[in-house]
Each structure stands twice: as structure tokens, then as C-alpha cells.
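Quick note —
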Amino acid sequence: MTGIYLHVPFCTVRCSYCDFYLLPEGARGAGPPGRAAFVDALVAEIDAVAAAHALEADTAHFGGGTPSLLEPRQLEQVIAALRRGFGLAAGAEIALEANPEDLTPERCEALVAAGIGRLAVGVQALEDDALRRLRRPHDRRGALAALAAARRAGVASLAADLIFGLPELGTREALDGLRTLLDQEVDHVSLYLLEVHDRTRLGRAVALGRQSLPAQDDTADLMEAAIGILASAGFEQYEISNFARPGHRSRHNLKYWTDAPYLGFGPAAHSYLAGERWSNPPDLAGYLAAGGRPLPRREPASPADRAREALYAGLRLTEGIDLDRLRRRYGAAAPEPDAVRLAELAGAGLVTQAGSRLALTRRGRMVSNEVLERLV
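Predicted structure written out below.
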């Protein structure tokens, strides 16, 4: 089954850390008329691609940007196009990323009625000073109210994002925020370490010495403590940054980590199908001018490149990757981990191997980038 990603490039404000393609409120085309035109173009793109590919999908994920800025009736319009073009198998996961300020009780009920079964709420932090530094448009109270509203509306799977390693946010405050989040009875937590991109406000502030990041060892200790708290609350760590109660893993994101096919719609969206990758240009004006049928940019990748990416993505999962399955899929192009380095990493307690299944240990997941660089 194929996964479907839909990129909605609108936000009320660009957060200080954000490097995604989006148009903040006030930008040309970012208001309600532009959103309506975008939805029409998105449906046109879905119809055109569906006509060219006889595929069925079992996940659809609205990302961005802030997809919750679309009206529920607009989301319903897009979902109807997906059902028409790709079937959306019975029990399909239909997920929406949302900002807390959009989630009133009435809006949550309308989202459920429109077909949204999974809601991923961008909480990011539960400390007001940290939220202001991030330029988030909500506060702690608003985030908690949004989660409560989603729960009362009957959202089938409620997820929330937190960012760790924030400037000037202490360990105690970060862990208190996590505990408070768990008190809201969420089903899934994505716990991301802050990434600093040069082109963002935060990246410039760090480069100029106006903000400082916590020491790497302190952040590692913070993550270790958080993993323990989540485990005690009944969450399983199924991927480096993702934790779920049983039955609530992100089925769509698992497509990326298991080398499964997916189609992307909207400006800046990426696709991967039959060993080929392509993407739409990050240009809303061009996307609208093309009526939702932009000229995609092909992204050439050799079988060896794709196999290496599949290995790295699979090792993000707690269960690891089956090397025999990787060899069957990619043949001679499949990467072979160096036996000597593999033994060294196992001896250091960073990887385990049982038959053909290779996995990172809990300690190995904490330094995954370094392990992967040494492995192949």
C-alpha cells in the first residue's frame, strides 16, 4: 500500500527554528482566498496523479506548514478526492498536523466529522518563556486546552510533539513539561532534539552568540530521563524520536522508515515510487499557476544510494532492519556493514545482531549519527 503526504504551506508565523517551505500570515497568497485556490489546485493534482497511477493508499498525512489553518470542509474536499483516486483502504490512517490555537472544541468536532482520525498537535514546549523564544503563537494554557478539546471530540489517536534541547530551558522544566503532557492522555509523543538551521532566526541568533544551546552531554542525559518517564507511562519507543501506546504508532511515518512507497502533493512535497524520487518545486505561486500540475523535479539516485538510505532509515526503528530482506530487494547494491567495525560497535554496546536483523541499542540510538557513519 502507498502512503500519501499533503504539504499545506501556510502558517500564522514562522517559528524561530523552522526551515520548512511555508508562507506566513500576511504573505501574498497566504490568506483565505489563497487557501481556497490552493485546495482546488491540490484536488486537481490528486486527480491527475491518480489517473496516471493505479494505486491504493492506506495512509494520508496532512503536513506543512499548518494544515489546521484549512477549514474542515476544505479538508473534507481533499479527503474525498483521495478516496476517489486512491481508495484509501478500510481503516486507513488519516492524520493532520495542527497548532493548538486552531483547536477549539467546535473545530475538533468538525475535524473528526471530516474524517481526521489522527491529530498531531505541535505543542513543542509547555513553558511560556520558551514558547515566546520559539515564536510559537500559543501558550501553555492554550496547548493544554487544545489537547483536552481533541480528547473530548473523540479523536481516535492523539499525538503531540515536544522539542528538547531548547536554549535556556532547564532539565527540570523540560521533564515537567513532558509529565504534564502525559497527564493529558495523549497516545503518541514525538520527542525531537532541536535542530539549528543557518537560515533561521534561531540559527542566526546562535551564530551571533545571542542564544546558547545546552551541552550535548546534558541533552543526552535529558533524553535518557525522558525515555524512562515515557516507558513508565506505558509508551514504547519504536523509533529514535517517537513513542507510542500500543496500537498508536504513526503508520504513515513508518512508510519512510521501512522503504515503502509514498506520493507527495502540494508545493515542496516529495514522492518515492518504484525506485524513483521526485519533488514539486517549493513555489506556491507556480503551483497555482500550473493548476496543481507542476513540472516535478526528478531526483536521480542509484540503487546503491537508495539501499544505503533504506539501511539508515531502518536502523532508526527500535526493531532495526532485516539485512537479508535488504539484500533481496537491492541485490549487489545493498550495503554490507564492515564486519570489523560491526564487531567493534557491538562490543561497545551500540548495536546488536540476531541472525540477519541488525538494530541499534538504546545507547546506540543516542549517538545514531556517529554509529551510522562508522557502520558503512
